[in-house]
Design brief:
The mean pLDDT is about 95. Helix content is about 25%, strand content about 25%. It is globular and about 80 Å long. The protein starts with 11 loop residues before the first strand and ends with a strand. The protein has helices spanning about 30-50, 55-65, 180-185, 190-200, 230-240, 250-260, 270-295, 325-335, 460; strands at about 10-15, 20-25, 25-30, 75-80, 100-105, 115, 120-125, 130-135, 145-155, 165-170, 175-180, 200-205, 215, 320, 325, 355-360, 375, 385-390, 410, 425-430, 440, 450-455, 470-475.
Amino acid sequence: MSHPNAYETTNRTVETRLGTLEYVGGFPTPETVQKAYDQLDVQRATQVYLEFMPFMSQQAIFDSHERESGMGPNSDIGVYDYQSRGKVNAVGLTYNTESIYCSAYLDVAAGPVVIETPPNILGVIDDGWMRYVTDLGNAGPDRGQGGTFVIAHVDDTSDLPDDAFIFRTTTYRNWVMARAFVSDTGEGESALSWYRQNFRIYPLGSGPDPDANYVAFSQQHLITTHARDFTYFERLAEVVQYEPAEAFTPYELGLLKAIGIEKGRPFAPDERMRALLAEGIEIGDAIAKSNAYANRLEGVRRYSDRKYEHLFLGGRHDFKDGDALWLDARLLFHYEAIVVTPAMAIERVGVGSQYLACYRDSAGEFLMGEHNYKLHLPPDIPAANFWSVTVYHPETRSLLANGQEKPSLSSYDELRWNDDGSVDLYFGQEPPDGYATNWVKTLPHQGWEILLRLYGPLESYFDGTWKPDDFVRLP
């Protein structure tokens, strides 16, 4: 059934954000066609940047392991062998300065891989999309007792052991990350030795490799974040060629195909397309920044009367809202952070961890380095293991390189406490008299943000009876 006024609109012009669009006899003019296709290609580039951000963030970690640390899959393990030393020199999303991290990657293309874990760790395996596979340790199926895990591709037909925790993934490459407590590991060579003795990765059937490389990350300048220019697409095209088709949905493959990335074909955009792809990155990054630092999503605020925000919205590690994938919640997390596990999202008293982000002071203004601020934390901070307040730069989402060994304050530090058990923390150019131990230096005319971490969060956090004060700008 035709619209009664259809022919009245066949010769018309319309003003849009693309400029004037013109139609003659119902057909678009050549100028309108060009504008439409340029817009479509930029939109597709922007959507690829945003859609594949979790994938490329994960890939950047694998690339760093190989590029800076000479690590290979299925045996080598990198260890941040000091709680804080060296981390401030790295470009990596929201590192903490209290844990003795380890990181490794698996490649199950040739067969299943075994991970042997020790007791009393907080660890996770994420797939190549940084999607949750399983927890290791205190929040995992081993319940903090240590155990043997086997990871296999979904199509692998190998016989798998009955006495291991078995998990299958759609991606060949997967990430293993764990945090151990310094009270168990010590630091430096002690920490490396602890991991050598207690944490092993090897192909199923081969046994541990006595020559496996345990790399001291604290001595290296790691860059574990994805590119934010045209090279993002070049690296994405390379990884798509390696991973199996089942690692992607038909829609994801279709989106890639629309910008010239297709399995079995070279990625060779012409000059016009290269320019539009680069523009799509710039637009995508502006969207990601706005979504992170001026978030408009319902439920992003932890408290109605505070500026603190969630990184996992709705308590969901899978970024679902009902049956729908909550795209902007997913983007928020993956632009700001790494590691996906329910242990960071769901309410489990005394287990896992909880994170609060803050970008603004009590007046709603962004935190800026030329000003001085006070943060008051009330008594009985609800963390069974430890708590920390860590400062990052909003451009890199990495530790603020302020000249201090660590831009953070935590329950591990020798802080000056108030008589009632509360603590006042300071951020700015100079510490108040007598509070140098409670102070983090900031950089003039540089923004900064924080994560408040609670490891082993307690009931008073979940029920809201304990909550941190806002940052107050000092005269």
